[in-house]
Amino acid sequence: MTINLAAIIIDAADVDSESTFWHRLLGGSITKTENHHFLRVDGFPAVVIQRAPGHVPPAWPQDGAQQLHVDLATDDLASADRAALEAGARRLRPTDDADLATHQGSRVYASPAGHPFCLRPA
């Protein structure tokens, strides 16, 4: 038996903002329906942004519940950090384990809908 990850579903009240963010960060192509935006990037499972009008972003790290987070590996942490922030991410911690000069550790962010994700060295 084989089980493969087919998609990652991300809830958001504003599907346009959230799908634009992930598209700017990962590239690929987007197919839109009224309630779902499907982001397809070579080498990734589909990233589906699902309309959730009552979505409340996780308050992690304050309340301890992340709901879900994604780790993204990069060969250039400093450039990926800038790209994430320019795409609309916000840092969840003012300082973290990342040393951008030596490409060690990881950076922790939230997407526009508040979903946490990390950038880490490949």
Keyphrases for this structure?
alpha/beta; 2,3-Dihydroxybiphenyl 1,2-Dioxygenase, domain 1; four-stranded mixed sheet; 2 helices; 19% helix; Glyoxalase-like domain-containing protein; Glyoxalase_6; Glyas_Bleomycin-R_OHBP_Dase
The chain-level structural class is alpha/beta
Q: Beta-strand level of the residues, as a percent range?
A: 25-35%
Largest sheet: 4 strands, mixed
Helix amount: 10-25%
Could you give a quick summary of the protein structure above?
With 122 residues, the chain is α/β, with parallel strands linked by helices.
Topology:
Elements: E1 7-12, H1 15-26, E2 29-32, E3 36-40, E4 46-51, E5 70-74, H2 77-87, E6 90-91, E7 107-110, E8 116-121
Parallel strand pairs: 1-4, 5-8
Antiparallel strand pairs: 2-3, 3-4, 6-7, 7-8
Helix pairs in contact: 1-2
Note down, in words, how this protein is organized:
With 122 residues, this protein is an alpha/beta fold. The protein has one domain: 2,3-Dihydroxybiphenyl 1,2-Dioxygenase, domain 1, CATH 3.10.180. Helix content is 19%, strand content 31%. It is built from 2 helices and 8 strands. The protein has helices at 15-26, 77-87, and strands at 7-12, 29-32, 36-40, 46-51, 70-74, 90-91, 107-110, 116-121. It has a 4-stranded mixed beta sheet, covered by helices on one side. A hairpin with a 5-residue loop joins strand 3 and strand 4 (46-51). The mean pLDDT is 84.
